[in-house]
Amino acid sequence: MAKIVVALGGNAILSTDASASAQMQAVRNTAHELINFIKNGDQLIITHGNGPQVGNLLLQQMNSDSKSNPAMPLDTCGAMTQGSIGYWFENALNEELAENGIKRSVISIVTQTIVDETDPAFKSPSKPIGPFYTKEEADQMKSAHSDWELVEDSGRGYRRVVPSPKPLIINEYEAIQKVVEAGIIPIVSGGGGIPVVKQGNKLIGKEAVIDKDFSASKIAQLVNADQLIILTSVGGVFYNFGKPDQKEVKDVTASELQEHIDSHEFAAGSMLPKVQAAVDFVNETGNSAVIGALEDVAKIIQGSEGTKITAK
């Protein structure tokens, strides 16, 4: 039985319809793919993003903000979306397990990620959250919320960005390890985990969103995973992506991939955190990582799809 941490991108939960029913259906579709790991005999640890959900929830909070019903801060909204998305995944996976006659338990764990309060990311917001805006809409949002920073995101419009500090440790990793040892499938570190800093015996929430790929890599290291699999909307890693000479990479060493990272080959808002998280895991553990498409899970298990990153 291989112990595999799977990191799910936003396409696994939300496409264009932000309604609860549409997101639950997207999660069911994702669970239908993930069941292939269970049928293969693997032990899964599931992580997921929450950028669109936490951004939308923040807007709802602000639109109903009042003295008697004050808006919740970003760290609390992160916890709320962990709960809602975890609830959807628990039910969807339980349905798939039942349909396949597999007796396994699933649990969602609200997860806190400890960060360094002096992390320079707090002074340079970079993590997109919430919906896309046109230039005109972005200007209106900036006028209404002067403390917001909005940037153009990969040619798809403008989005709000917030600080994205690097994870130091997953606060609940020992509990997650025990859950895994019991053969239970945990859903953890939603949206990268709630960013907190340690002050004495207290954990204090911060206004930030941690990149889910870096948190997934950290969890994979802490629970001694055999493999980290990052599932996204593309089939793998490409050199010169979007250019006439683009090249799909099937097998690559961590050192070679690091060279391409250092030469600024990958887009900061999309592929860069994925390849860096994969390289970090491989370098720390010596085990392999894979980056591939959600719909290719069965072929990734067979080894015929996705980009595999190895130590040598």
UniProtKB/TrEMBL annotation:
A GO term, aspect molecular function: carbamate kinase activity
Q: Which InterPro entries match?
A: AceGlu_kinase-like_sf, Asp/Glu/Uridylate_kinase, Carb_kinase
Family statement drawn from the similarity comment of this UniProt entry? Belongs to the carbamate kinase family.
Sorted alphabetically, the keyword list is:
Arginine metabolism, Kinase, Transferase
Q: Which Pfam families does the UniProt record give?
A: AA_kinase
**Pathway(s) of this molecule:** Metabolic intermediate metabolism; carbamoyl phosphate degradation; CO(2) and NH(3) from carbamoyl phosphate: step 1/1
Question: Which top-rank group of organisms is this from?
Answer: Bacteria
User: Does this entry carry the keyword Transferase?
Assistant: yes
Record carries keyword Kinase: yes
Q: What are the BP-aspect GO terms?
A: L-arginine deiminase pathway
- Organism of this sequence: Xylocopilactobacillus apicola
Q: Which CDD domains match?
A: AAK_CK
Spell out the reaction equation it catalyses: hydrogencarbonate + NH4(+) + ATP = carbamoyl phosphate + ADP + H2O + H(+)
Could you tell me which residue ranges the Aspartate/glutamate/uridylate kinase domain spans?
3-291
Protein's UniProt name: Carbamate kinase
Q: Which GO terms describe its cellular component?
A: cytosol
Coiled coil location = none
